[in-house]
UniProtKB/TrEMBL annotation:
It is an enzyme of class 1 (oxidoreductase). Keywords: Amino-acid biosynthesis, Histidine biosynthesis, Metal-binding, NAD, Oxidoreductase, Zinc. One of its GO terms (cellular component) is cytosol. Coiled coil: none annotated. It comes from Salicibibacter kimchii. This is Histidinol dehydrogenase. The active site is at residues 319-320. The lineage of its organism: Bacteria, Bacillati, Bacillota, Bacilli, Bacillales. Catalyzes the sequential NAD-dependent oxidations of L-histidinol to L-histidinaldehyde and then to L-histidine. Signal peptide: none annotated.
Length: 425
């Protein structure tokens, strides 16, 4: 890995639109075809792009049963424990409707309502992501979303990965569509004869999925445009180089565009981590992907001290930051911009990716400066509640009318005043 003396302008922000024009044109055509031809277009694109000629667009009961047979019991048990941890964490995010009453009879409040229908995209091109199903579906269920449709691309035999089916079945998701890419996103957004449309689409995916989500935004809501995985390790002399290297590789193996960075004031640690990464790459099954990611987007940044290291972390605003320093809790509050903060040497990012409870759908590409992990709130919407008594309106109508007139809205002013002219009918 490159060891770089830090300058002031480190950034994770990449131009999300660069080189996307060709993909956008393909995505736009797919969306238009699905809007026009519905299920027929969905089937045709699934055959063309995923090589699957489907008998049914949906997963059957028999396929679910076969998926359980294909899974090791200990993996099913691990899924169940992860579900419990993730549900427990998200239950704490519930927000309640509220109302407040004033002496003059005014009642104000906020009514919270779950979304009626949500579509969950589960990526399936290069790898299977049962963990992402848990992270997307559980907060929706905690929010009491009315209807959940899951979709994932099938393999050439028309099947979904058994772990994906088991994760979905454990959560009770009963509508699972066999479709991927832009055609799946268009189907969820606009609906077809066999798939009713949803109100919001959740879930990560490749560039076809991301651009399709961006294109249908407005017709439906979307969670975010999730970019490639990112890890930044803030480390001092006390960090174990083998742990740091292992954690960098854990995210570099996701894909060639993943980012894995160390920020440290310790030259000795930097050199040891670089050597350890090479050693651990030797027998890593996805070494080619991880190496390309590290060569392109990996770095070990050397800083003057830990204060500067924290500044660098904040300017990167990464998806994940691990604090592998003496007394890691001292850094809480100082790290302001990060999707998730992992504290201490036993809190490998993998713990959060699969199991701990917090959501692994997190802001990427520097967007942790202004956005947050996926939460239960993403599946809820709020309506304001306003009730004015006769007394409250009488007391305040003059002020309301004057605010209306200063904006030039006479009808607004009269709508308040008419309520005091009892003789006018
Ligand atoms: N941030 C997160 O939490 C998180 C979690 C899981 C996965 N991911 C990311 O999701 C992505 C998954 O990508 P993937 O490719 O494995 O699966 P995917 O399901 O996103 O994409 C597969 C689909 O892409 C479409 N496609 C592929 N080539 C096409 C072409 N030439 N023309 C039109 N459509 C085409 C096909 O319809 C196919 O079904 C990765 O980038 C991964 O890192 C992120
Ligand atoms: N690290 C990914 C989010 O960046 C989530 C994930 C899913 N599976 C393994 N990891
Ligand atoms: Zn991961």
């Amino acid at each position: 890995m490159k060891i770089i003396q830090v300058d002031e302008h480190v950034s994770l922000r990449r131009d999300p639109d660069s080189g996307n024009e060709k993909i956008q044109a393909i995505v736009d055509e797919i969306i238009a075809d699905v809007r026009k031809d519905g299920d027929e277009a969905l089937r045709a694109y699934t055959e063309k792009l995923d090589g699957a000629a489907l008998d049914s667009l949906f997963v059957s009961e028999a396929e679910r049963a076969q998926a359980y047979e294909a899974m090791e019991t200990k993996t099913v048990e691990a899924i169940r424990q992860a579900i419990e941890n993730i549900r427990d964490f998200h239950e704490r995010q519930r927000s309640e409707s509220w109302m407040t009453t004033k002496e003059d009879g005014t009642i104000l409040g906020q009514q919270i309502t779950p979304l009626d229908a949500v579509g969950v995209y589960v990526p399936g091109g290069k790898a299977a992501y049962p963990s992402t199903i848990l992270m997307d579906v559980i907060p929706a269920q905690v929010a009491n979303v009315g209807r959940i449709v899951m979709t994932s691309p099938p393999d050439e035999s028309g099947r979904l990965h058994p772990a994906v089916l088991v994760a979905a079945s454990e959560l009770g998701v009963d509508m699972i569509l066999k479709a991927g890419g832009a055609q799946a996103i268009a189907t969820l957004a606009y609906g077809t004869a066999s798939v009713p449309p949803v109100d919001k689409i959740i879930g990560p995916g490749n560039s076809f999925v991301a651009l399709a989500k961006r294109a249908v935004f407005g017709q439906v809501d979307i969670d975010m445009i999730a970019g490639p995985s990112e890890i930044v390790v803030l480390a001092d002399d006390s960090a174990r180089p083998d742990y740091v290297a292992a954690d960098l590789l854990s995210q570099a193996e996701h894909e060639e565009r993943a980012t894995a960075i160390v920020v440290t004031p310790s030259t000795m640690l930097a050199e040891k981590v670089a050597a350890e990464v090479e050693r651990q790459l030797e027998d890593l099954p996805r070494a080619a992907i991880a190496r390309e990611a590290l060569d392109t987007f990996g770095a070990i940044y050397l800083t003057a001290d830990l204060y500067e290291a924290v500044d660098v972390v904040n300017s990167l605003a990464p998806e994940h930051v691990e604090v592998l320093c003496n007394e890691p809790f001292l850094y809480l509050g100082k790290i302001k911009h990060a999707g998730a903060i992992f504290l201490g040497e036993n809190s490998a990012e993998s713990v959060g990716d699969y199991f701990a409870g917090p959501n692994h759908v997190l802001p990427t590409n520097g967007t942790a400066r202004f956005s947050s992990p996926l939460t239960v709130d993403d599946f809820l919407k709020k309506s304001s509640i306003i009730h004015y008594s006769e007394e409250a309106l009488a007391e305040n109508s003059e002020m309301i009318a004057s605010l209306a007139r200063v904006e030039g809205f006479e009808a607004h002013a009269r709508a308040v005043e008419i309520r005091h002219k009892k003789d006018v009918r």
